From TrEMBL:
Keywords: Amino-acid transport, ATP-binding, Nucleotide-binding, Transport. Gene3D superfamilies: P-loop containing nucleotide triphosphate hydrolases (3.40.50.300). It comes from Methylobacterium aerolatum. It holds the Pfam family ABC_tran. This is Branched-chain amino acid transport system ATP-binding protein. Belongs to the ABC transporter superfamily. Residues 2-234 form the ABC transporter domain.
Length: 234
């Protein structure tokens, strides 16, 4: 579904990705793990059109989307759930969810999806008329996920969804992401919480300073001595 070949991109003098190659199959949950600054967020930003590639290919559902406008990429079916729960703080929960569906014209479908999200996250239902900025960190993260799903994406990009959340909420977050995959949506998950991501995923890539240095099934990476030492605390 998503194929990235030899992707190079960066910011000014910084080359954040130095020839990245990854594939995400339809229906898969693929994890991209690595240390701070390895280039994980940049990979997601390049896919969603926020950072222009210097060279390389990004193909989605057979089409070349490298360098396309973010709006076109969203229309093609890719939703980006960025790091740091970027909800619109002054807007209500309901308005934030509506923003996620702004490209859709099927009102009944939008309403049904909204109710499904409220059923999945009852806290959001209770607070639907409250400003999003007044929610807890975990609730804002759930809202950011709900908003991404409101566009009925084919592929969702998650950037560090567990960042800053309490441990019991982190667990719930990963189970929600697993459920999104189980419902048929393809997922590319960026995480510093390497163990949880590797346990959950169908396939994983390890990124170090802009290059993929290891790939395989999650359990293979969990068993790898280098991964154990550097990312899983030995
Ligand atoms: P993190 O988890 O800290 O976000 P990451 O693996 O997602 O790490 P990126 O954010 O993709 O890493 O950063 C890759 C490299 O690009 C780093 O060297 C970083 O300092 C640099 N970088 C990221 N964003 C910018 C920017 N806006 N301007 C300049 N350099 C940047």
């Amino acid at each position: 579904m998503l194929e990235i070949r030899d992707l190079v991109c960066g910011y000014g003098h910084v080359t954040a990705l130095k020839g990245l190659t990854i594939t995400v199959g339809e229906g898969q949950l693929v994890a991209l793990v690595g240390a701070n600054g390895a280039g994980k967020s940049t990979t997601l930003r390049a896919i969603s059109g926020l950072v222009p590639p210097r060279s390389g290919e990004i193909r989605f559902a057979g089409r070349d989307i490298a360098g396309a406008e973010p709006r076109r990429i969203l229309e093609a079916g890719i939703a980006h759930c960025p790091e740091g729960r970027r909800v619109f703080p002054q807007m209500t929960v309901a308005e934030n969810l509506a923003m996620g569906a702004y490209l859709r014209r099927d009102k009944a479908g939008v309403a049904a999806d909204r109710e499904r999200i409220y059923a999945e996250f009852p806290r959001l239902a209770e607070r639907r008329d409250q400003a999003a900025g007044t929610l807890s960190g975990g609730e804002q993260q759930m809202l950011a996920i709900g908003r991404a799903l409101m566009g009925r994406p084919k592929l969702v990009l998650f950037d560090e969804p567990s960042l800053g959340l309490a441990p019991n909420i982190v667990e719930r977050m990963f189970s929600v992401i697993g459920a999104i995959r189980d419902a048929g949506t393809t997922v590319l998950l960026v995480e510093q919480n390497a163990f949880a991501a590797l346990e959950l995923c169908d396939y994983a890539y390890l990124l170090e300073t802009g290059r993929i240095v290891l790939e395989g099934k999650g359990e293979a990476l969990i068993a790898d001595p280098h991964v154990r030492d550097a990312y899983l605390g030995g």
